[in-house]
Each structure stands twice: as structure tokens, then as C-alpha cells.
Amino acid sequence: MSSLMSNYGRFPVSFAYGLGAYLYDEKGTSYLDFASGISVTNLGHNFEPVTKAIKEQAEKVIHTSNLYEIELQSRLADKISKASFGGKLFFCNSGAEANEAAIKLARLYGNTIHYGKRYKIISMYNSFHGRTYATMGVTAQEKIQQGFTPMPAYNQYIPFNDIEALKAAVSLNDTCAIILELFQGEGGVMPVDTEFLKEIRRICDEQDILMILDEVQTGYGRTGHMFAYQLFGIEPDIMSLSKSIANGVPMGAVVAKDKVASLFTAGTHGSTFGGNPLACAAGIAVIDEMLRDKFLDNVKSKGNKLKEYLNNNLPNGCTVKGEGLLIGVKTPYTPKDVAEKCLSKNLLIVPAGNNSVRLYPPLNINDDDLIKGAEIFVSVIKEMGK
Ligand SMILES: Cc1ncc(COP(=O)(O)O)c(C=O)c1O
What we know:
Layout: E1 15-19, E2 22-25, E3 30-33, H1 36-39, H2 48-60, H3 71-83, E4 88-92, H4 95-112, E5 120-124, H5 133-138, H6 142-145, E6 155-158, H7 163-170, E7 175-180, E8 183-184, E9 190-191, H8 194-207, E10 210-214, E11 238-241, E12 252-256, H9 258-261, H10 277-290, H11 295-313, E13 319-323, E14 326-330, H12 335-344, E15 347-348, E16 350-351, E17 356-359, H13 367-384
Parallel strand pairs: 3-15, 5-6, 5-7, 7-10, 10-11
Antiparallel strand pairs: 1-2, 2-3, 4-12, 8-9, 11-12, 13-14, 14-17, 16-17
Helix pairs in contact: 2-10, 3-10, 7-8, 11-13
The structure holds pyridoxal-5'-phosphate.
The site of pyridoxal-5'-phosphate (PLP) has 15 residues, from helix 4.
């Protein structure tokens, strides 16, 4: 019997090594990786510049703690700030921790700038923001909260993309922040309506409410833009990041505009490991690669190719969603069954909600492997229909 807790329903395979878009099991059998560890290894496995940065840093120093200056952390913060909206950064180790910090910042803002009168956080049904208490509290899904109620009392949930519900929710004048994903990843790659997003931005500006964008899954090139908000012509006040920012070395970050970031004074928040030299060395190698000429353009064109192939070849009853290489496919079949069938054909994909699966190949995948994965996927869906 395993000594592990049974909180994961795992697929019956384990991997010994990986290279580029492929993972290999102990016997050397290859699997084409359209999961990327749930959009984490966006540069593929064993990507040379990242591996080299990790090796070199490990030989110097892995961890010192935030008791001391960490030059690599400042360098990485400058790069992310410059690539986004010029905010300030806090580093942590996961997506939930990044959202936890975002929620704490929002509460600080409500308590200090609005004298405690603003405390409510509005979030969307079918969202996913993490499994810690505060982040589970804004994750408006019964199946995630089941068994852990009562949730913190300051949350209010509204249907995604419902402007009237949004207006009704903010009318009470007690809202400090609105948190959302631009594509609900766990919710099946459901896109935000531009009108809804613009209305949130307008209301936030008018009422001094903070807009928190959870870009844990959508950020870092996945949509063909460095950050998904750049698709919509708006900027958040706070953005959370994680997953791919160090290509698999655990790392999370919050970026916040100065008016909010300045509230995190010494002692208000922290993390022992957050932004340690090893993670930052990996993070710098990742962002340097993604900001290289044409990297993001290539993601866009690969995304278009993949979508075109899927739209032309999938049978009726399937819907292809998403942007860049953030692709969701709604099928008539149970997502887990689709993922299992793909696994049996040596293709890794990610199940999601809303009868959808996610296809998240590495962003630097070559065209042959991209189409090979798409062909396997289409053949699986066709077989399931027989
Ligand atoms: C949008 C989003 N936010 C937050 C999280 C939580 O991240 P983590 O599992 O690293 O805590 C996830 C994880 O899938 C996510 O997709």
C-alpha cells in the first residue's frame, strides 16, 4: 500500500526523463506532451538554457532566504515589470500562493485606503484560483469547496460574463476587488467577453475597486502574448503568475501597481523560499527566451495551425476554443476518458471542466510534432464516436 495520501486521481504512467516535447517512461517509451505539466514546461523538457542556468546556479548557491538581498530576484522582477504594466513584484512558490498574496493586498487596500469599509471580493462561477483557504474561497465551484465549508464570509460569486450580475454585486459599495481569469482554464478554456472585461475595468476605475487578473495559466506566452490581458487593451491592478515562469522550478509571483504594492511594508507578508536564487536563475532564462524576437509570433502562428487542423478535421459535435496554444476542445465525451484514450496512443493532454480537454503543447514545439499530436487527438475522438 502506498504511503502517499490519495488526493490525486493519477494516470497510470510515470516518466523517467523528458526532452523537448517528449516524455519517456522507464522502458524508454515516448509520449508526446500536449500537457506541459498543465502549462508549466512551456519551453519543453530539459530546455538547454534553463537547464544550464539551474545547474550553474546550483553550483553557486540555491537558497539564502529573504533575510538578505537577492540580486537575481531584483533582476527578474525588473524584467517581468518591464514586460507587463510596470508594477512591483512579490515572489512565492505556486499559483495559490500568488493569488493568496493578491487577496491579502486587496484586503490591505480595503482596510487602509477605504478604512475597512471595503472587504468583499467578487469572483466568477467556474473559476479556479487555488486550493488554499482564501483561494478556494474565491474559487466558485462547489466540487472544490465540498467538505471544507464554511468559506470565508467576504466572497461573492457572480456568473462569468454577466454584466447585470456584476453591477448588482458592486452596488453595495463594500467591494475591494474583483478577481477573474481571462480564459477559465479548469473551466474548459472559457474566454471572457471583451465587453464584460471592459465593464469591470470601467467600474473598478470609477469606484476604486482593484481588478485582479489570475494569469497563472494564461500568462507567459501561452496565448501568443506574454500576458493574456494584452489581448484585450486593458491593464489589471494586480496580476498573479506561476506555472511556467521558471519552466518547472516551483515559483509564483504577484505584480501590482504601485498604489497597491506599496502597502506590503516590511513584515506584512513573506515566504521563506519565495524568489530564491535557484528559481530566479531559471526564471531569468525563461523570460529571456520568451522575449526573444519572434518567439510570441511563432506561438500565434502555431496556435493558428493547430486550431485550423482541429477545426477542419474534428467531427461534428466538437468545439475548439482558446487563443495561441491555450486550446480547449469541447467534445461529447467525458474529459477523463478522452485523456485516457489519448494516453493509450502516447499523447498527453489535460482534462478540464465543461466537457472539455486542454491541448497545451510546449510553446516552442516544431510543426511536425504539433500536427502529429493533433492527428492522434483527432483519431482518438473519431474512434470514440464509433
Ligand atoms: C488559473 C489558476 N490559478 C491558480 C492555480 C493554482 O495554482 P497552484 O496549483 O500552483 O497552486 C491554478 C492551477 O491550476 C490555475 O489554473
